[in-house]
């Protein structure tokens, strides 16, 4: 393939969604030093730190958009101040084509480094190369999660694979299995570079956290367990006031938070403030609030809601170890390791609930649904154990960008809300976002997702 030898060192601007993989050339010499290559990464890293709109970790407005259309909220009862909130995911689907473009822009920048960094010997060079592999792996994982059907097997449709630049090539969709292989290779390579400098954010534990997320999404249960156990061991849970401070912190990476946005006080801008305000105009759903069965004994209850079902939790993009306790519980349950699943479920609950009473199989709640979720990742009716785990996940990760993907992962339930005499229905196909129309039109053989054919 013919590689492009000239590129702009700064972030490159694009005029349409079909050229986001190209490298515009304006007479700029290709970077030569690790510092010059690092500048490509730092644009992305600074965007995350400052809470800007970035596809690798959500800022507050992106979280409000994706959380507000789930069954954790009651869109029908939205107050006038929430008029900017979409009623359902269908109102956001056009914007998801921009997300597709931006994820491939991350891949493009990572490819520039992976293909051109001349030496990987010094600590700085290893940091740069390891971060590039990490970002590419996460971007491809998010492309699978957002633009492909929930994982069933390796033969289903994946996304186009781009590992270098050929302006004349327009790749079609690879198999899911081929994309998985690339992601796993990239994560393994990223770990091999032993990123040591916190300024690059994607240190060993952060890489393993995203790797565990990926394994969990692709139902590689034992691998998800192994990595999650490492993360939880190194970042144990906290409780009480320490937990509340960690969750509600605007700018500090406290306790067991591994990665977060808005790291600087100046980054909590009008976007951040307005997002926290607008979500208060859409009440939490009665079903969600009633999931807090221990109410005042559960530290998450007052953090989440008040007596009027108004959200109280700060919407801040973050990765923290509680998610991996939940992975340990659910992955073990799917493998039939019931005692181990109960152990991890109880570990989470004992760190959130005072006067805690551990669950046993005999004392588990009898519910077999979690909000709109009625079946598990394999399409089977929920058991009381899986229901309890999903309900804890729903409470624990509320406002952190998780619930929509839980709905997608577990059956893609269809549900509707009403507003101004209209009925807005989240259809099953809408959980998988459309590929950009222009790409489909210009790329022979590129298959659009079901429901978006034109």
UniProtKB/TrEMBL annotation:
<comment type="similarity">
    <text>Belongs to the SusD family.</text>
</comment>
<keyword id="KW-0472">Membrane</keyword>
<feature type="signal peptide">
    <location>
        <begin position="1"/>
        <end position="20"/>
    </location>
</feature>
<keyword id="KW-0998">Cell outer membrane</keyword>
<dbReference type="Pfam" id="PF14322">
    <property type="entry name" value="SusD-like_3"/>
</dbReference>
<dbReference type="InterPro" id="IPR012944">
    <property type="entry name" value="SusD_RagB_dom"/>
</dbReference>
<dbReference type="Pfam" id="PF07980">
    <property type="entry name" value="SusD_RagB"/>
</dbReference>
<feature type="domain" description="SusD-like N-terminal">
    <location>
        <begin position="20"/>
        <end position="201"/>
    </location>
</feature>
<protein>
    <submittedName>
        <fullName>RagB/SusD family nutrient uptake outer membrane protein</fullName>
    </submittedName>
</protein>
<keyword id="KW-0732">Signal</keyword>
<dbReference type="InterPro" id="IPR033985">
    <property type="entry name" value="SusD-like_N"/>
</dbReference>
<dbReference type="InterPro" id="IPR011990">
    <property type="entry name" value="TPR-like_helical_dom_sf"/>
</dbReference>
<feature type="domain" description="RagB/SusD">
    <location>
        <begin position="292"/>
        <end position="452"/>
    </location>
</feature>
């Amino acid at each position: 393939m013919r590689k492009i030898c000239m590129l702009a060192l700064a972030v490159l601007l694009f005029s349409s969604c079909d050229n986001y993989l190209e490298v515009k050339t304006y007479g700029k010499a290709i970077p030569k030093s690790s510092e010059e290559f690092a500048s490509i990464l730092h644009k992305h890293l600074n965007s995350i730190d400052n809470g800007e709109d970035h596809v690798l970790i959500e800022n507050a407005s992106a979280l409000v958009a994706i959380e507000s259309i789930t069954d954790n909220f009651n869109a029908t009862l939205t107050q006038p101040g929430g008029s900017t909130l979409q009623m359902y995911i269908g109102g956001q689907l056009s914007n998801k084509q921009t997300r597709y473009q931006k994820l491939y822009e991350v891949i493009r920048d990572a490819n520039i480094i992976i293909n051109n960094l001349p030496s990987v010997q010094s600590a700085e060079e290893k940091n740069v190369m390891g971060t590039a592999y990490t970002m590419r792996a996460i971007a491809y994982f998010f492309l699978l999660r957002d633009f492909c059907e929930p994982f069933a097997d390796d033969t289903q449709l994946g996304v186009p694979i781009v590992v270098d630049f050929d302006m004349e090539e327009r790749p079609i969709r690879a198999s899911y299995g081929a994309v998985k292989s690339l992601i796993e290779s990239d994560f393994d390579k990223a770990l091999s570079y032993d990123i040591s400098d916190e300024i690059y954010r994607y240190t060993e534990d952060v890489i393993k956290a995203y790797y565990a997320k990926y394994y969990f999404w692709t139902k590689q249960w034992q691998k998800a367990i192994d990595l999650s156990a490492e993360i939880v061991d190194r970042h144990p849970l906290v409780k009480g006031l320490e937990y509340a401070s960690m969750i509600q912190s605007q700018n500090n990476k406290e306790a067991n938070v591994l990665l977060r946005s808005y790291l600087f006080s100046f980054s909590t801008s009008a976007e951040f403030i307005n997002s926290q305000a607008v979500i208060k105009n859409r009440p939490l759903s009665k079903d969600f609030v009633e999931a807090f069965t221990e109410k005042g004994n559960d530290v998450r209850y007052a953090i989440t809601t008040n007596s009027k079902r108004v959200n109280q939790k700060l919407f801040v993009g973050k990765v923290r170890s509680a998610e991996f306790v939940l992975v340990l519980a659910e992955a073990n349950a799917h493998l039939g390791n019931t005692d181990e699943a109960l152990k991890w479920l109880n570990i989470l609950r004992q760190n959130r609930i005072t006067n805690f009473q551990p669950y046993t199989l005999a004392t588990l709640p009898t519910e077999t649904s979690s909000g709109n979720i009625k079946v598990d990742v394999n399409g089977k009716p929920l058991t009381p154990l899986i229901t309890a785990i999903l309900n804890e996940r729903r409470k624990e990760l509320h406002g952190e960008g998780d619930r929509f993907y839980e709905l997608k992962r577990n059956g893609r339930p269809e549900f509707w809300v009403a507003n101004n005499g209209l009925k807005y229905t989240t259809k099953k196909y809408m959980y998988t976002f459309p590929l950009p129309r222009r790409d489909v039109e210009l790329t022979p053989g590129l298959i659009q997702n079901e429901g978006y054919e034109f």
